[in-house]
């Protein structure tokens, strides 16, 4: 079975737009778990554009499924996750100024750096995952870092799938086969959606977890709008 971890960054984006507490991030996290999701993912960024540092702490007692915190392991991020002790930390090599995550780790170039950080997280009983492009050399490099899992960066697959090119899955399947052989757990995420998730899952052996945010929250708007517009119309009769 593949676990669904819902990324709630976009709920915080909406909340921050008005400065209040609507939508309520903690209530949303509770509801998502009650609806059956097996995890909650957040990706606090240094500029706190969506998830704030305090949110990461406040979510700890609320997330009773798997709590996954993603981010670039600069010292303030590392100190925060070592205090919170989520189920899993996913290391992502984001620049400060990126719109969203746009590349995986070069696991060869950053091998020693990753070894030290992963060891520190694992000493604190936190499962580790590292964000990687679907490149066999990067998967081999990931193994050498001591990480428990990799997270396959799926944007390229999603773009290709949208264009009708199903061969875009091939490097992902090859990397998954290698990761399984090396004993690395496999997560995946970025731009996965209701359209592409079934095909992705069918072609990735041993897929343990997907984290999905942008599409899932957008789809929730599309699928919920009719109901809510109808409710307003009822009240306005
Ligand atoms: C690590 C990853 O794949 C990203 O999708 C990220 O978690 C999303 O971050 P934003 O919500 O800031 O775009
Ligand atoms: N790790 C990927 C993630 O958490 C969500 O990515 P996206 O669905 O918002 O693109």
From TrEMBL:
3-amino-2-oxopropyl phosphate binds at residues 7, 18, 191, 213-214. The keyword Cell division does not apply. Keywords: Cytoplasm, Pyridoxine biosynthesis, Transferase. 1-deoxy-D-xylulose 5-phosphate binds at residues 45, 50, 100. The keyword Metal-binding does not apply. The active site is at 43 (proton acceptor), 70 (proton acceptor), 190 (proton donor). One of its GO terms (molecular function) is pyridoxine 5'-phosphate synthase activity. Homooctamer; tetramer of dimers. Catalyzes the complicated ring closure reaction between the two acyclic compounds 1-deoxy-D-xylulose-5-phosphate (DXP) and 3-amino-2-oxopropyl phosphate (1-amino-acetone-3-phosphate or AAP) to form pyridoxine 5'-phosphate (PNP) and inorganic phosphate. This is Pyridoxine 5'-phosphate synthase.
